[in-house]
Amino acid sequence: MGKKSKKKKKAAKSAKHKDPNRKKIFKFLFLIIGLGTILLGVTSTDWFMEIVQPVLAGYAKVSSIIINIFGENTNASLDYITSSEFSLKVKKGCDAIAPIILLAVAILAFPSKNMNKWKGVLVGTLALVILNTIRIISLYFAGKYLTKTVFDFIHTELWQILFIICTLLIWLFWMKWSISKNEETLSLSLVSKKS
User: Fold this and answer.
1) Is the pTM of this model over 0.90?
2) How many domains, in total, are found in the chain?
3) What count of Cα atoms within 13 Å lies in the side-chain half-sphere of residue 67?
4) Selected residue with higher pLDDT from 59 and 186
5) Rounded to an integer, what distance in angstroms lies between the CA atom of residue 160 and that of residue 63?
6) Is 190 left (phi over 0), alpha (psi -120 to 50) or beta?
7) Containing domain of residue 143, as a range?
């Protein structure tokens, strides 16, 4: 009985090490950490700042237009939103590029069809850009109408947490959608094979 028990334990151990999902998980994590680190590192270079400057100016312009719908009288100049009472600069880090990179890397690293991946990256990027625009608008109003302490909390704490949660939720929603699309394709191919 002792020999059989040992053989079962050895078989269970070797099956554990041969688990194909384990390899996929490590590959997924390696891609996220590796590509994420490289791409986030690129965002710290001087030449990237030249590329991102028009993005910051675009956020300022769009946000200023929307803020003015609410009765404010703001202007956008480069990456500044200004009014006679308050001024806000849209800086690197307020561009949603880091969450977009992390979302894109997580989607691209996940085992799924390429078309599903690109749809996820595009829709996810659009969702994060819209969320970031809302963030900038809310920071303008917080800066103008609330205390500096409250503004700082909203800027450095609240929105950081919201962005992490929203990025994760977008990825989870995409993952669920992508898996269901893969299952639909698989079931359709099985049905057509039976016919």
Assistant:
1) no
2) 1
3) 29
4) 59
5) 19
6) alpha
7) 2-194
